[in-house]
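A protein record pairs a chain with a discrete description of its three-dimensional fold. The following entry can be read in just this way.
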Amino acid sequence: MQKLSLEQLNRVDIDTFKQQDKLPVVLVLDNVRSMHNVGSAFRTADALNVEQVVLCGITGTPPHREIEKTALGATKSVAWSHEPTTAEAVKKLRVAGYSILSVEQASGSVQLQDFAPEHTKKYAFVFGNEVHGVEEEVISASDACLEIPQFGTKHSFNVSVTMGIVLWDFISKIKFNKK
């Protein structure tokens, strides 16, 4: 085995990326305070080819030096918008035909391994603030809450790690486990 060079990875350029069909997924960041986590959301959205990132409330927006530190240019390739509140963002996404899934430890949540996405649906995944999680009003407006099983002493993953886990689970079910 040998590590691949950048040329061997055969990545598309930004213009081509913007034109290609996207995974029918929107990442919604509910008052995420860390610019590094925001940058990670952009980088993950680019890597996994999602439609857009919606930044809500106090969530920082590009251009910002700290976002770019982890986004590594993905703010230029991934579509994004800002909404004053997450509740407003969720209402607009529902009208646009998205199923709203908050990623939160909540009563009645669906364990991630049990989540069975439908191939014909569009999904908006809501990721919450690093301390307070997803707002209660947004949880109430969600179609479901997804929860990642955990087995250690901590009560949660970092939000950027959570995004990676949830999106990879979704993509692996949609793209690789077609029935």
